Amino acid sequence: MRPNLPISLVLATTMVGLPLNAQTVNTTDAQSISDEIAQQKQALALQLSARYFDLEKSIKSQITEKHLATALDSVDTLQPHSAFKQQMQQADYQYRQTKGITQYTDSVMELRIADASMVKNWKEGQSPLFAFEPSGDDSNWQYVEAYDVYGQVHQLDVYQMPDVPVLVVDSNSAKELQAGLKAMQAEMKRLGQDSNLITNGNVDKQVLKAKSSIQRSAQVSDVEPLNTTQLTKIRLNDDEEPWISGKAEVYAIITGVDPSRVEPEIDLVDMPYLDYDGKDYYPRQTMIFWPRYRWGAVDMILMEQDDGTDYKELAKILVKAAEDILKMIPDPEIQGYAIIAQITNRILDVIPDGVLTNDDDYLDSYYTIMQNTPYVERPGAGGNVVATFKPVTISPTE
């Protein structure tokens, strides 16, 4: 758990500025990063609760049952020329700097109501609590700390949704994950790993990239159809998320071996639609571009993004884990695609004990997804995810 700061001290400092803005995070220690983030959010929650009556009109105009969150730097005070917005922008920058994503997004911090069912009572005058995610692995959380508009501390149950309105100081997890995956991809490329980043909205770009990497100078008539595998249905049994964490933000790590050299192939896939457990999703998302992989086989690890991740450091861990396995195998062709499972297992070994605190939760994994092979309602190795995969051949443009 994070170190507790005296409420009077934190409140006093946040009234004139956030206490952590002057510090630059220069450590990759996971616990330090997690503590730093929790303290940033704690300071913001205290400041917002103390100034709630000054901010109430602005917050209520932006948060509704259909729009449960608003960017923190869009909240205005009743006082003209207030320094509040600048403080929020500084807090946002500090958070992005801590996570190593300042190059990839201009803002991520937000204020959201914990559940749509709370909006009515809040809009009708019930005072809210202001909460934030504690530090550390959520399985070790004893309670969620929150503050009322008078600065009093409340201890909320970790998994039971509160019966009073709660405004959560958090990052926009979708924007953070998108930026984090870009940071991971950039770091992998710096390390010599030609990683692809696949999102649900850039399939066409990925197709062109995959084709051009194979036959850059070929005529259209010479280009072969592109073999891919789509995810057509998926259901998550447990997203590992306490109520304060909001929607799940899931991504996939695709592991394989480069077709032209004995090097690992690691691709990242953003899955922004997979918000809640216990629900079927039908994304028809292209997950695998087969020209990138030897033996027509890959593994897939499904992860859920949480606080405490240093994305650049995670990229280093993934690359090193995969490279270490291949260095131990003198002739990979003898073992064939069995090597891929060794790479996957090595990655799973290092992720929980690596640089992550309240680490990206491991959800499930799929071993040996084969090219040109459909899988219907296939459970993951851990039984937490059930998914359907469909081979799809994309023909060249006429």
Compressed to H and E, one letter per element, the order equals HHHEHEHEEEEHEHEEEEEEHHHEEE
Count of spatially separate domains: 2
Count of extended strands: 16
Shape descriptor? elongated
The level of helicity is 25-40%
Q: Compute the gyration radius: what is it?
A: 23 Å
Strand content: 15-25%
Signal peptide: 1-22
InterPro entries: DUF3103
Keywords: Signal
Pfam family, one: DUF3103
How would you describe the overall organization of this protein?
Residues 1-28 and 214-218 have low confidence and may be disordered. This protein has 2 domains: 7-171, no CATH class; 175-394, no CATH class. It contains 10 helices and 16 strands. Strands 1-2-6-3-4-5 form a 6-stranded mixed sheet. 31% of the residues lie in helices and 24% in strands.
